[in-house]
Amino acid sequence: MALSGAKENGKEVRIYEYLDELSADLADYISELSEASVKERGVFAIALSGGSLISLMRKLCEAPYSKTVDWAKWYIFWVDERVVAKNHVDSNYKLAKDGFLSKVPIVPSHVHSINDTVSAEKAAEDYEFVIRQLVRTRVISVSDISDCPKFDLILLGMGPDGHIASLFPDHSILDEKAEWVTFLTDSPKPPPERITFTLPVINSASNVAVVVTGSSKAEAAHLAIDDVGPDCPLSSPAKMVQPTKGKLVWYLDKAAASKLDGTKFSE
Predict the structure, then answer these.
(1) pLDDT tens-place string over residues 124-144
(2) H helices then E strands: how many in the chain?
(3) Domain spans, the chain
(4) What are the tens digits of pLDDT across the range 172-226?
(5) What is the pLDDT of residues 33-58, one digit of tens each?
(6) Alpha-carbon span 96 to 173, nearest angstrom
(7) Helix runs in 100-189, H state only
(8) H-assigned helices in 183-229
(9) d(Cα 126, Cα 86) in Å, to the nearest integer?
(10) Residue pair 70/34 in contact by the 8 Å Cβ criterion
(11) Which of 1, 36, 99, 154 could form a disulfide with 205 if both were Cys (CB 3.0 to 4.6 A apart)?
(12) CA atoms 137, 130, 111, 208: torsion sign
C-alpha cells in the first residue's frame, strides 16, 4: 500500500515503503491504461526508458497480467536509446528484451527499436520517420494542440542529476522544439552517443509516469516535485516534465522521497 498518494498541480505522487509494492502498483497502473487505450483506440502505444525501470515492470510478466493484458495490441517504443549494437550491455533494447519483452507475447513487428548500424544523427532521423508513419496510421495518436505524437504512456526514470530520458541538465537539447527525436554525441553519462525524445513529445503524452528509487535521487526528486522557487536549478529536466493535457504520476520508494517537503515517515 502506498505510504502517500498526494495530488497537486496536475501531478500525483505515490510513495512506497517496499519496492515490491511499488512494482505491484506500477503493474496495475500500466495494465489499466492498456485496457482503457485498447478499448478506446484498439492499440496501446507505450514508450520505455532504461535503468531500473524495466526490473520494476517485472510483475507484468506474472499472473494475472501475463494472461489478462491484451499483449497483441501493444506497440513498444523507446524514449531514449544508446547508439550501440542491440546485443551490447548498454542497449536499452537489450535490457527491455531480456527483462520484459521476451517474457510476454508481444508481436515482434510491434517492437520499434532504433537502427543501430548508423550514426546517432541518422538513427534519430530514422526513428522520427517511423513514429511519423505510425502517427499517420493512428497507431500513435496525435496531440490536439500541436503536431506532436501523443503516446498512451511514457515511462521515465530519473538520474541523481535530475536527467530524464537522455535529456541532461544544461544541455542544449532541452531547448529543442521542432524535432520529435533528437540526438547527442556528448552525453555526460556514457555511452556518449544517444537518441532521445524531446520535451514537447514527452509533454504531449496522455500519461507520463516517472519511477524513482534510491536515496541518491532524493535531492533531485525534491527539486523536481516540490515548489522550491529560486533554489531549483533552472535546467532540471525532471521538473520540465509537465504534460500539457495528460496526467503525470511519480512513483517513488521511501528513500527517493525522503527529502520531499511535508513527507514524514514513522519508523
Answers:
(1) 999 999 999 999 999 999 998
(2) 7, 12
(3) 11-257
(4) 999 999 999 999 999 999 999 999 999 999 999 999 999 999 999 999 999 999 9
(5) 999 999 999 999 999 999 999 999 99
(6) 25
(7) 120-136
(8) 199-202, 218-225
(9) 16
(10) yes
(11) 154
(12) negative
